[in-house]
């Protein structure tokens, strides 16, 4: 790069010269003088110099005997060729012999030069901040008085600023100044902050501004640096930032543990090297903490810790441990009243903790100072927060105490909200769990196990539910549903729907018919609700028959179930998703599949799939596939359903936040062996009664159920007789032996048998009454081609 053409120093820029003889005539002048006054170079030669000055202006003629080069000069208005005045600073210098040399500088150029020199003098003479000029060797060439007071004017000229670390981009002072000189780009306040740590004193924070300096040829020959102490401004900004973050983040959490951890993360390293939060046991349970404490006696637990320079020291009290006994001190009263306890003497802090040897685990190694405050909200002592300083840091002062007090006041209110939420959430979860069936259940059709995980955070409990309902003829209904919304309202809706499902299941309705009636119920509930558009639910209803090993499934806007076969193959059961409950207007479709015994059937709510998607870009289908693979890997034939369920939801259970509740119902199917079944088909003739009675008697004797022969003969006689009377076509009779003896009579009629109280004068009407007296349960259900009347008799005491 070409070196710029040199220019004269600033005072010489624009200088004009005129030679005047002893007669006052102009004999010579510079071309710049002619141009300044608008004349040709030779136009004024030989004319009186006084003619170049505007009227009524005195001309400074040197007095006789004045020393050569004596100081003098003033601004004169010279006459321009067109008549206007040109202000020029003029100084007359006597020449050897006779005559004078008049040197002139336009007033504008003089003012600019004067301003430049005045600015430099003012900056280097001010006493408010440190201003220094560094040469290429980074030695100080000029400096303001504040630089000397700061100890930066060393005997060898080296500036201690050059050795200070922590400037913009992690540079030292020397690296930053060299960068400014090499790049030609200044560094301003926003990117030049320096923290100077002095043992035993507060950190000093400076704002550094540096700009390159250039010589007459435009070459960099140094830097101008300004260093301003902004420690107080920095501490004020830090205080406001901490208070803002405490208000914005910490006070809004509804989890006590999370709030405590966020608090120590906020305080370290901003306020100290270590911090801990101790919470009352009652606060953690959502109970009522004390309004006043008389020391600490095993009722406070360390909940959160943070170390600025690594993991929490092993020798200190760990998170989750109870605090040792601390005797009552006057300091506890001060803390409870909202004061901050500042202890800048380690021995004083140790004495405050008492003589219990376990209290030594609360004193960090190398402790220099500690500051503590109580988490008090609404008059309740929720816990305490402690901040410690070590490593030659300055002790705590009044500003630190005020800052901690402001932060703790805001956090305590948020933590109390979290405590109250914890109490209400636990009550809601208890209510939710009390409305759900037993977690595990075993029937002839299947072994079932359910898992319910409530939502966390603002959502609270929801309206998920599961159920396994025993049906007639050893069948089992599997139900999973999800009510819209969260909170106690959703829980109440869930309870009503679960009760309705159980009631409708007792009617032996098919899955499609049951969902239709449930949809009507939700419609009525929506009409009664204050906000009808918030009333709705999804539901999956499946009926498994262990006799024919088939499963009927219908869906009201719910996710399809999954099944893992005994050989380990897994698949989804493709179910036509009907409209959600409360939508109405569309029929529900039943899907029927065969499920081998030993298979694991999984019904679940949408929360399981959405939890799998959270934090990833996975689609709904990809998340379903992931859940299916996990289910297949967990569903070993020797594993319990509880273990399978726990493995299925393990990633969700360990997640930090769960915005929706999750329900999973697992069922391991069973089958009734052929040796426990007997079925016959009879033509609709009167002889069918005796024939059915005889075959049933033989089968019962073969099973060793002689004690049930008489009652079963009466039941079959009555049911087959009714079938002959009211139906046409063949009549089916089936006996199933399990924990009970099931007797079924099937015909083509759709008439519903009814139990009634026969009068003394009635000749009939007592048959079903006898059936009800001889059995433990009885009922009827409709099928595709007719109805089935069934009865159950207990086997206890009948075998032998």
TrEMBL record:
Q: Which residue intervals define the domain PAS in the entry?
A: 18-46
- CDD domains, per database record: HATPase_RsbW-like (cd16936), PAS (cd00130)
Q: List the keywords (alphabetical).
A: Hydrolase
Asked if rRNA-binding is a keyword of the record, the answer is no
Top-level taxon of the source organism = Bacteria
Q: Which Gene Ontology molecular function entries are recorded, alphabetically?
A: phosphatase activity
PANTHER family on file: STAGE II SPORULATION PROTEIN E (PTHR43156:SF2), STAGE II SPORULATION PROTEIN E-RELATED (PTHR43156)
Q: What is this protein called?
A: SpoIIE family protein phosphatase
Recorded source organism is Streptomyces benahoarensis
């Amino acid at each position: 790069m070409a070196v710029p053409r040199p220019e004269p120093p600033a005072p010489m820029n624009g200088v004009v010269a005129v030679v005047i003889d002893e007669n006052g005539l102009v004999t010579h002048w510079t071309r710049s003088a002619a141009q300044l006054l608008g004349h040709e170079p030779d136009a004024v030669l030989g004319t009186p110099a006084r003619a170049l000055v505007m009227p009524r202006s005195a001309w400074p003629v040197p007095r006789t005997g004045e020393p050569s080069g004596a100081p003098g000069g003033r601004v004169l208005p010279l006459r321009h060729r067109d008549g206007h005045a040109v202000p020029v600073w003029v100084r007359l210098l006597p020449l050897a012999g006779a005559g004078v040399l008049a040197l002139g500088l336009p007033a504008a150029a003089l003012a600019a030069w004067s301003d430049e020199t005045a600015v430099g003098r003012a900056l280097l003479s001010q006493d408010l901040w440190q201003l220094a000029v560094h040469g290429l060797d980074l030695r100080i060439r000029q400096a303001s008085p504040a630089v000397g007071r700061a100890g930066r004017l060393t005997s060898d000229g080296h500036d201690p600023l050059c050795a200070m670390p922590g400037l913009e981009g992690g540079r030292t002072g020397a690296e930053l100044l060299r960068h400014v000189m090499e790049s030609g780009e200044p560094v301003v306040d926003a990117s030049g902050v320096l923290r100077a740590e002095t043992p035993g004193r507060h950190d000093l924070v400076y704002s550094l501004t540096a700009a390159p300096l250039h010589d007459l040829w435009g070459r960099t020959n140094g830097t101008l640096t300004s260093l301003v102490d902004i420690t107080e401004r920095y501490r004020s900004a830090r205080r406001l930032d901490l208070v803002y973050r405490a208000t914005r983040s910490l006070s809004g959490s509804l989890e006590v543990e999370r709030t405590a951890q966020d608090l120590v993360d906020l305080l370290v390293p901003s306020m100290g090297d270590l911090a801990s939060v101790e919470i009352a046991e009652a606060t953690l349970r959502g109970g009522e903490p004390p309004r006043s404490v008389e020391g600490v006696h095993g009722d406070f637990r360390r909940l959160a810790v943070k170390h600025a320079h690594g993991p929490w020291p092993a020798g200190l009290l760990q998170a989750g441990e109870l605090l040792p006994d601390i005797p009552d001190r006057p300091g506890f009263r001060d803390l409870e009243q909202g004061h901050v306890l500042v202890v800048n003497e380690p021995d004083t802090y140790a004495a405050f903790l008492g003589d219990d040897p376990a209290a030594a685990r609360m004193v960090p190694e190398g402790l220099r100072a500690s500051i503590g405050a109580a988490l008090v909200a609404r008059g309740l002592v929720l816990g305490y927060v402690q901040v410690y300083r070590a490593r030659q840091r300055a002790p705590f002062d009044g500003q630190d105490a005020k800052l901690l007090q402001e932060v703790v006041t805001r956090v305590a209110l948020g933590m109390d909200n979290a405590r109250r939420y914890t109490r209400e959430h636990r009550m809601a979860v208890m209510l939710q769990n009390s409305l759900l069936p037993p977690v595990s259940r075993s029937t002839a059709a299947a072994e079932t196990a359910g898992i319910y995980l409530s939502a966390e955070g603002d959502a609270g409990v929801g309206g998920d539910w599961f159920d396994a309902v025993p049906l007639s003829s050893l069948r089992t209904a599997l139900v999973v549903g999800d009510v819209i919304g969260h909170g106690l309202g959703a829980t109440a809706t869930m309870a009503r729907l679960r009760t309705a499902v159980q009631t409708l299941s007792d009617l032996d309705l098919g899955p499609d018919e049951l969902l239709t009636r449930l949809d009507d119920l939700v419609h009525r509930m929506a009409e009664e609700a204050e906000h009808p558009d918030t009333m709705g639910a999804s539901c999956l209803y499946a009926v498994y028959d262990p006799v024919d090993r088939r499963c009927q499934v219908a869906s009201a806007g719910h996710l399809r179930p999954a099944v893992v076969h005994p050989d380990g193959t897994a698949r989804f059961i493709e179910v036509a998703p009907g409209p959600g409950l409360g939508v109405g207007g569309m029929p529900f479709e039943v899907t029927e599949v065969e499920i081998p015994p030993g298979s694991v059937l999984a019904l679940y709510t949408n929360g399981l799939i959405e939890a799998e998607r959270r934090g990833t870009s996975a689609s709904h289908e990809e998340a379903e596939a992931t859940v299916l693979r996990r289910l297949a890997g967990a569903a070993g034939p020797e594993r319990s359903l509880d273990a399978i369920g726990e493995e299925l939801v393990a990633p969700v259970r360990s997640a930090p936040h769960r915005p929706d509740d999750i329900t999973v119902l697992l069922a391991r199917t069973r089958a009734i062996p052929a040796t426990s079944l007997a079925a016959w088909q009879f033509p609709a003739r009167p002889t069918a009664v005796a024939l059915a009675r005889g075959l049933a008697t033989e089968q019962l004797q073969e099973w060793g159920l002689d004690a049930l022969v008489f009652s079963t003969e009466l039941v079959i006689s009555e049911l087959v007789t009714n079938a002959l009377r009211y139906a046409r076509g063949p009549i089916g009779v089936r006996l199933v032996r399990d924990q009970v003896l099931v007797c079924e009579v099937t015909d083509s009629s759709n008439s519903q048998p009814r139990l009634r109280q026969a009068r003394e004068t009635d000749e009939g009407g007592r048959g079903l009454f006898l059936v009800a007296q001889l059995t433990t349960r009885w009922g009827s259900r409709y099928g595709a081609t007719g109805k089935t009347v069934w009865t159950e008799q207990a086997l206890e005491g009948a075998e032998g």
